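Aim 2 progress update. The chain analyzed this quarter is reproduced below.
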Amino acid sequence: MHHLRITADGGHTGSNRQTSAVRRWVAPVSGIVNISGRLKHAEKKGDGVRAQLVHSRFAVQASWNAFGNEVETNANRIEVQAGDTLDFVVDCIETASFDSFLWSPAVELIELATPDQSNDRWLPGFTWNAAADFSASSEKLAPSDSLDPWVQLAQVLLLCNEFAFVD
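Predicted structure tokens:
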């Protein structure tokens, strides 16, 4: 698992298929969405990466492989209900060697299930973009959003080996 990471633009797979890089989008409203993006695996070494779009209710919706190239990752007319999740999963094919990837998918709301759900934000045409809307670092937090010292301590304790590997 020492390679596993996810960033706004991509990441690296884990050391096996049980440790995949996963980005999750939660549907704010019910409707139809389109997925777009490009999966890039730049290395000509290793065996490439596999990306999947996994719907919380309908399982795998699409799958793409990349090995030393770039592939379109589009999926159209995916039905979602408010609270459904779409997971963007990237894992290794056989080995995790040279499995860094670039993938920042976008989810576009194209149709509301019931028009009365709309508000100023959730209208058809609204797009969530992983590169623009994903934040993995605290430097992007506003000062009012920073964690207080007790919360920071709790976070450190939850991440330490002694807590993670309790017998």
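The first strand starts at residue 5 and ends at 6. The two ends are 20 Å apart (CA to CA). These observations will guide the mutagenesis experiments scheduled for the next reporting period.
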